[in-house]
Amino acid sequence: MYAIMGITGQVGGATARTLIKEGKRVRGIVRDKAKASAWEAAGVELAVADAGDAAALEAAFRGAEGVFLMVPPNFAPAPGYAESRTIVAALRLALDATRPNKAVHLSSIGAQRKKGLGLITQVHILEQELCSLSVPNAFIRAAWFMENSRWDVDPARTRAEIDAFLNPLDRQFPMVSTEDIGRLAAKTLQQEWSGNRYLELEGPRRYSQLDAAATFSRLLSRRVRAETVPSAHWAAVFEKEGMAHTAPRIEMLDGFNSGWIEFERDGTENILGNRTLEEAFRDLLRT
Hints:
Layout lengths: L1 E4 L4 H12 L4 E5 L6 H5 L3 E4 L5 H8 L4 E4 L12 H17 L3 E7 L12 H10 L6 E6 L1 E2 L7 H6 L2 E4 L10 E2 L1 H12 L6 E7 L6 H12 L4 E4 L5 H7 L6 H12 L10 E4 L4 H10 L1
Parallel strand pairs: 1-2, 1-4, 2-3, 4-5, 5-6, 6-10, 7-9, 8-11, 10-12
């Protein structure tokens, strides 16, 4: 049986779906059972645990052959990343107490860096704190999520343009679908290894914001433009969206645009997913 955090989200859900399809038993770790009723109806065992509750996580991990872990998304963390540090400390205590046969963690491209990461600092903390445990760990360093373009669907439909924060517009960035991440997580959970593994995952090719606009154009049968959002305007844009702490998101975007946030390559496993940007966007337009 495999215990999965984030089962009601994109990556955790994709991981669980793959395991179930392959005939494996799944335990979903959730904060609210009501929000996971469809999974329970599909035969998934549910365990209630807050990501920062070590005792509840220990109970959820107990008896699992392998666990899939993540720091829940926080796009406006407070200075110092106190929330993430609390969660990682709880994960460490629960893993140390239960010692599953393996643990697969959602990490990110660039997580090997010690600074200049912004939001990715949260998974840098996870890697640094959990890699010393005597549990076989696999850290999936995923590229920029293709599904981040969910926020571009409405402006593509209504204004025929998307707001581009990745620049320059013609630069191709590593991107990956959450479905490919979930498939890799499920595959890795069923493998055996010792020590720590670092799996760097991107899609079948890299994409620019011009590619994203062209993809929306094809799927919507209308010309969609990519318009650069000047970095001087980022803070105001994010504050308008209700973001209390904008600096981590800005630092992350600067890291991508400067090329600082990239894969490590040396000493890692480099993997290409199968899903194209067009396949991911087609699904976004259906939702």
